[in-house]
Task: structure prediction
Amino acid sequence: MLSIDKYAYSNRILTWRPQIKGLIWLLGIVLAFQPILWIKGALIVVAVGHTLYAAHLSVHQYLRWFYAILPFILLSIIGIVFTMSTNKQIIYYPIRLFGYYFGVSKTMLPVGLHLGVQVFAAVVCTYWFALTTPFQQIIITLKSCHLPNLMIEEIMLMYRFIFIFIEAFEQIYRAQKLRFGYKNFRLSLHSSAILAKMLFEQVMVNYEHMVHALDAKLYDGEFKV
Result:
């Protein structure tokens, strides 16, 4: 069982109807993308607090779920707020480079921070839904929305493979770290290359296992969802 499923199948609101959870998640996403900042902040506090309570999570365990996505969020914000211009008046702490001024844009800094809060609010709402709703209930919710079976099948396969990929990554990385594979920069590069190679091989192996399992069950090209 994947780690996210362990929390989803043992949380305090497991017996809630999945459609109700889906509506609460949708409401949270709508509130995350509305323009009032304090509502986003309140949403983050409520969603994080209830996730910790409902899923029996510690703060440290919860923060671990953000390790994979925080770099992407930070890189996106950095790409928005940093700029180059010939006018240093529009930049905080300008640094002159090759005839231009490089630094934080006075115009885009509020936009970047607002976007960061917005994305974070949407992520914590999604984590609340994922950590409190078993995947079987998610499928029921999607079917109750009358989505095409093909779309539901694609979501199901993507969901399983994403978390299988994460589990494989954690296992390989942990084994490399125990063998001091990241002791210095040179070893880190070598270990990262091996990690990427092994992950690719593991994905292919898992795919072959899935194909064999489906053939054994007389798979006819359609999942019964």
Notes: The mean pLDDT is 83.
